[in-house]
């Protein structure tokens, strides 16, 4: 089975990303030296996994700079990858004057966060910027103005959101173009299939990005859902793939065409992810996994 991952567009006017993305939120915990970091990134690129997903606060605001070590050493590679990052979450941090976890989607914070991300990553533009969490104090006109400022300055090419409900997405999209909603989805988290999130993406022809598509590895633990693990193992053996490849292919099979984000330091895990893009999953296999996940057949 080929492991080449193709590119796809999130919406009618872009951006073009790889069909699966690589997540960097644990990068600080992997303790890569420069050689190991380069090997990890280059292996992903060789598989066609050219989109890397970040957020300003990952690793206590360190992961973007860790990734940036590689890009600053290899600036000619910038055109070979796509960089996604997020902003808007402020955890408690006395050094920064943040006494309580809160969200900030004000214009000043968005602009400052992007400047910091660009400096840390070692680039002069982002392919995609997302508002990380829905903010009860979000002013859609202010966010739209911040996005317009960043786009006109050439600092960010496209914009989206993360973890927004359909109504929250619709509100901001009424003021500014959005190309994705990055949400949690997996065989252990089915909500987007039934709460209108994927329906809205299909309606607007916007592809969702998916975080935690393997439920942080819990998919493969019998304690999480014994019937699901048995079905995953059985079908994976039948199809000649790993359970991880099968679980990702299950998401990719949805007509909303989700774009999963895989986060692992293991090169073999990147291989599993790449194989998912080339695994055509039949309808009965898809429903067998849904039935195991839900614990009952469809009505």
How many helices? The count is: 13
CATH class of the domain at 7-179: Alpha Beta
Cα Rg = 19 Å
Count of β-strands? 12
Percentage beta strand: 5-15%
Going by CATH, the architecture of the domain at 7-179 would be Alpha-Beta Barrel
Order of strands, main sheet, comes to 3-4-5-8-9-10-11-12
Distance between the termini: 35 Å
Series of H and E elements? EEEHHEHHEEEHEHEHEHHEHHEHH
Structural class: alpha/beta
- Residue stretches low in confidence (pLDDT < 50, at least 5 long) are none
Shape descriptor reads: globular
What's the CATH superfamily of the domain at 7-179, by name? NADP-dependent oxidoreductase domain
Classify the helix fraction into a percent range: 40-55%
Largest sheet: 8 strands, parallel, barrel
| CATH-assigned fold name of the domain at 7-179 | TIM Barrel
Task: State mean pLDDT (0 to 100 scale).
Answer: 96
Pfam family, one: Aldo_ket_red
GO molecular function, one term: oxidoreductase activity
Structure in words:
By secondary structure, the protein is of the alpha/beta class. It has a domain at 7-179: TIM Barrel. The chain is 42% helix and 14% strand. It contains 13 helices and twelve strands. The strands form three sheets. The protein has an eight-stranded parallel beta barrel. The model has no long low-confidence stretch (mean pLDDT 96). InterPro entries: AKR (IPR020471), AKR_Detox_Biosynth (IPR050523), NAD(P)_OxRdtase_dom_sf (IPR036812), NADP_OxRdtase_dom (IPR023210). Residues 20-286 form the NADP-dependent oxidoreductase domain. One of its GO terms (molecular function) is oxidoreductase activity. One of its GO terms (cellular component) is cytosol.
């Amino acid at each position: 089975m080929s492991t080449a991952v193709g590119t796809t567009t999130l919406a009618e006017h872009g951006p073009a990303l790889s069909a699966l993305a690589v997540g960097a939120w644990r990068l600080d915990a992997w303790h890569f030296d420069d050689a190991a970091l380069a090997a990890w990134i280059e292996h992903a690129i060789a598989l066609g996994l050219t989109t890397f997903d970040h957020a300003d606060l990952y690793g206590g605001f360190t992961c973007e700079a860790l990734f940036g070590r590689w890009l600053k050493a290899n600036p000619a590679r910038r055109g070979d990858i796509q960089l996604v990052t997020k902003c808007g979450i402020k955890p408690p941090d006395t050094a920064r004057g943040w006494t309580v976890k809160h969200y900030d989607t004000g214009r000043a914070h968005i602009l400052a966060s992007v400047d910091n991300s660009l400096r840390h990553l070692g680039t002069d533009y982002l392919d995609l910027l997302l508002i990380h969490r829905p903010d009860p104090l979000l002013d859609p006109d202010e966010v739209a103005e911040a996005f317009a400022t960043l786009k006109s300055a050439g600092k960010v090419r496209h914009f989206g959101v993360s973890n927004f409900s359909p109504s929250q997405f619709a509100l901001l999209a009424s003021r500014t173009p959005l190309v994705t909603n990055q949400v949690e989805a997996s065989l252990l988290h089915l909500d987007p299939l039934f709460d209108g999130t994927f329906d809205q993406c299909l309606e607007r022809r916007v592809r969702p990005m998916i975080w935690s598509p393997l439920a942080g590895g819990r998919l493969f633990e019998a304690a999480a859902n014994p019937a699901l693990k048995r079905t995953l193992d059985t079908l994976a053996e039948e199809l000649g793939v790993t359970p991880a490849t099968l679980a990702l292919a299950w998401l990719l099979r949805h007509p909303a065409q989700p774009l999963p984000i895989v986060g692992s330091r293991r090169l073999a895990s990147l291989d599993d992810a790449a194989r998912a893009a080339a695994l055509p999953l039949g309808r009965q296999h898809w429903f067998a996994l849904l039935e195991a996940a839900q614990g009952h057949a469809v009505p």
